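Write out this protein's structure.
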Amino acid sequence: KGIQVLVTDHHLPGSELPKAVAIVNPNQHGDVFPSKNLAGVGVIFYVMLALRAELKKINWFETKEIAEPNMAQFLDLVALGTVADVVPLDKNNRILVHQGLKRIRAGQCRPGILALLEVAKRDRLQLSASDLGFSVAPRLNAAGRLDDMSLGINCLLCTDQNNAKAMAQSLDDLNRERRSIEKTMKEQAIAALEHLNLKGKNLPMGLCLFDESWHQGVIGILAGRIKDEYYRPVIVFALANEHELKGSARSIPGLHIRDLLDEIATKHPELMTKFGGHAMAAGLTLNKNKLSEFAKIFDATVKQHISEENLMGEVLSDGELTSDDLSLELAEHLRIGGPWGQHFPEPLFDGKFKVVQQRLLGGAHLKMTLSLPEQPYQWLDAIAFNVDDAAWPNPQCQFIHATYRLDINEYQDTRKLQLIVEHFEPYHSEVL
């Protein structure tokens, strides 16, 4: 069309690059930019910094009588995009996220972000990186998954607080709908796997799942849930159109899923229409009539790269905490030590607890009161998110072995220690 094009990206480039005027990507071969883990929002932030420097050098702002922009005003968006894209929080990304969080806590951010925090019932004064990842990002993403991403974009661009609140509420409604669709799809996927009676060694190492009724906007989340459930690489497909499928892949540590798809494409160039992604997540499209063939090749290729031992899974813990360590003071120190995130995980502890009380919140979250076996009268608040509501609450379960993070639950001006339980399983104890 004769239009000059600038491409900014952070994904691993393919062998053939687009014919652009310029491609800015720290992961291009030969690129010397030292911060390789930038999210897309980080890449464009540095492009804008460089552009501002160049315009300043030629006195462009003075000539045009335009105020030189303060780039720090965009750090709220940089922090949100960096956390939401789940890129590794290396030193540079931690600086960007930390500075963005500081601005949001101070209220120096987009009205849309404040509105999204409000509908998610998150206190901006105590904001953490995980709040951006688990409360703000899913609501923004729900627009693109189920409707039109422009709603999320307009919410972030909005300068009027009332309009931002209305858009944030619409995004919250879409997110509730997304969760309902996701729950149904997960139940269908697990039921299909159980119907096939694929247990133990009969279960493919690389799983491919497809249902014509599945919503393509939710397949990435479903792939992640099934990956966690069966601990193996998973690709979930949905109809892209009458003849084509769109797939979303999620992997486990030790298997670079984008490189694996590249290997399949090299050996079987007729299979996929296109693909791309990262080590842990990728996307692809293929013709509907090639799904069965692809599923077999995907499983066979996965088996060439990982063993049964890789599928066992492990949870790394920083150890047990004593009753003295289980304190609001330590939780506050850990909160200050953030931002935590991908490749810079928040400390995770483990221990055995007596279950004093248990009940479901919101139909999916298990609220518990726990105590250490040796300290039966020191009760601890705990919550486990997105549990199997068919298995929990379980009145027969008196003891659990849990891995958890320390958090602070703030309610009606009261601050209490709360354990965020990441993994847990019942165990039998003769104690008490």
